[in-house]
Every structure is written in structure tokens, then in C-alpha cells.
Amino acid sequence: MSAVYAVKPGDTLSKIAARQGTTLDALLRLNPQITNADIIHLGQLINLEEGDDDLSEDEDPPVAPAEAPEWYRVALLEEGVSEVRGDRHNPRVIEYHQSTSLRATEDEVPWCSSFANWCMEQAGLEGTDSAAARSWLNWGKEIATPQLGCVTVFSRPPNPSSGHVAFYVSETPTHIMVLGGNQSNMVRISGYKRSRLLSYRMPD
Q1: Among 65, 102, 168, 202, which has the highest number of CB atoms less than 10 A from its own CB?
Q2: Alpha carbon distance, N-terminus to C-terminus of the chain
Q3: Dihedrals phi, psi of 74, to nearest 5 degrees
Q4: What is the pLDDT of residues 138-162, one digit of tens each?
């Protein structure tokens, strides 16, 4: 049984193998879809041995590509922030919530839009000031071709008023990889079905 890891900025296959305490050859055996060990892509899913997706605490901070917008750089540095189980709440998530008019005080309240707003504020830009993911459909301008870090809005079936918002990383034939908050209750890179895409957006 294996776990899955999404390639992050600055990753190489050799670096991933070393960080997980395995060899490049072992990693390649788990990933027959990789035909060239020197070529991997941001957001690409890599199979790991079960449990190897827990990165060591002394891992170097993630580095964003030179073309990444400032809000994406902010978001990348927040990777790993997660909700706290039980009655306690992560103060960092509560801080994200304060960037919207809802100003929720619990980390169980959906916070993908709060995180997106917070990242924009840290980058010196205005977000939507709303905790609703679909509020981003009225923000900035729509673009036809996604760019690294662009705001990406998804539907969330079956409720037609629900949604999810995050920042574009890459894509596969079936999924769009995005960096965002409240993805498996944390800030991380996750994949969402392309059929759920509503809009790619950038500032005016």
C-alpha cells in the first residue's frame, strides 16, 4: 500500500527520495509512470511507501518559482497549517477568518475563502472580504488559460451555492492541482476534478 505526495516548488525526485529515507531506484519502482527521473512537474502525484508522506521537521522552507505572484508565495509558506481536533481551535486559522466580514471564531467553519482573502491581504491586495468561496467569481477578471497562483473557483456538489477556492498549481488530464486552505482540513496542495471548475481569475 502506498501514500501519495504532490510535487512542490524546488522538488526533484532525488530530493524527495532522500527526504523520505529511500532510494531513487525504489521511488522509480513505485512510479512506473515516470520515464525520466530528471523530469517531474509541480503538483505531479508521486507514489510513496505508506507513511512516507510525513515530511521531516527540518525540511527546507518551500521556495516559490520566480514567476509566482506574491499571494501564492504567502500561501506556500502557510502549508501545513491545520485545524485542531476537539474544542480547541488553531489561532492561525482564526486569523484567516478575521480577513472576512464573517470573522468566525472556530476553525471548523469552512475557511478556504478566509485563507484566500488573508493571503491577498498579506500581499497588499484586496480580496472579497467574504467567507463564501463563490464570492471570488466576482473578483478581478476571468482568464481563459490558468497561470501559476491564479484564483481557481470550483463548485461543491450537490449544493449549487457552495464552492471551493484555492490557487492554481498544475493539472492532470482529470484533476486541477491547487494550493489552498481547508483542503483535508489544512493548507496543502490537492487535486479537484476538472468538471467542477467554475473560473480562473486574476486581479484587474
Answers
A1: 168
A2: 46
A3: -60, -45
A4: 999 999 999 999 999 999 999 999 9
